[in-house]
Amino acid sequence: MKGIIAVFAMALSLTGWAQDNGVHKRSSSYEWPTDELVVKKLKDWQDLKFGVLLHWGIYAVPGIIESWSLCDEDWIRRDTTRSYQQYMDWYNGLADEFCPKAFDPSQWAKACSDAGMKYMLFTTKHHDGFCMFDSKETDFTIARHAFRNDERRDVLRHVLDAYRECGFSVGTYFSKPDWHSQDYWWDVYGKKGRNVNYPISQFPHRWARFKDYTQRQLQEILSRYGQVDILWLDGGWVNKNNMGQDIDMPAIAKMARRLQPGILIVDRTIHGPYENYQTPENTIPATQLDFPWESCITLTNAWGWVPNPTFKSTAEVLGMLIEIVAKGGNLVLGIGPTASGLIEDPTVERLKEMGKWLKANGEAIYGTTITPHYNEGDIWFTKAKEGSRLYAIYRHKEGTDMPVSLTWSKNLPKRSITLLSTGKRVKYSIQGERVTVSLPKKIQAGSLAFAID
User: Which CATH class for the 2-358 domain?
Assistant: First the structure.
């Protein structure tokens, strides 16, 4: 069974829930918020550049892709030795095995802080409906199963507190669909994919109950756990234009901003007043975008923890961050703690390496804005928000030798070019519209950032 699950996990992690090549398509348009508090928080968020998205739930026990094995769609593959109901019973029964005795959110927060991350998103509830907080609206929560006698059973509280202590802006991921709720997937009807499985028009009272349930859970999250900066809503298929799945976003937004003034709301892929920034998934937009956005990309081949994953290298993640920031976005990196409650060593090592580079070169990343000429080959450009200082960031390709010099056009110095990692000026020459920068001898291989004055 575990072998089948592991293969299944790898396949699903590459598929995602969107229909086109496994990529969650971003919205086609953007609407700027008008609330002054939201606008300010949005601008502050854009300066942070680098964050973490933590997927953690009962799916960590066997190490399978989060929730999706429950879904009845053509691309789903699951254990063929069990009936669907047997599989469902096994999956839900994982709640009685999920007892993360080593749960240490301070370890998570320190690892992410060491990486140079500035904000976080934590999965309070995925599509399977299992709550990672002490919800009073359901028994399907970590606080009422195997972990119920642990003083840390209200996991969300401890996670948010740990990250706040490290200076993070904090956000809560919440799934709009809930496949454990009889008011979303009703046992009277067979499962029909990710959507509600009964006709809402015939059972409006049932959908009204689900809508109220969703709003009450969101109220719990936003009223009991201190300041929350971001409400990140997943499951974009739950919207009024798809099978009438209207959960009343205006009411949710009103409630959210009454409890958390200025909170950013990210109703993924549903463009309009409740998608304060766009979220291209496991991809980077082809060009600059002139509105707020965040690429959400996994560190491994899955959002949650899976055994023996394929890790992206530090150089690969760093290269993505450089490109994303030059194009005007943020990067949120997907990480999954283990079932025991820790972030594993290979992840911690990569995060430390990211932080080492950002500590030396972060001036070219944090709090920057875009510049019209933003890319030339392996060199990406950003600009300081105040003043005229530009930054050139050379993205080094793994396995290649360092060049003797770098050259680019348009973003030319007027006085000097400084290598940020040393704080020393470098030699350069200008011919026409091109500058050539001489690199220090025996420079260590890796990406470099320069201040252009």
Answer: alpha beta
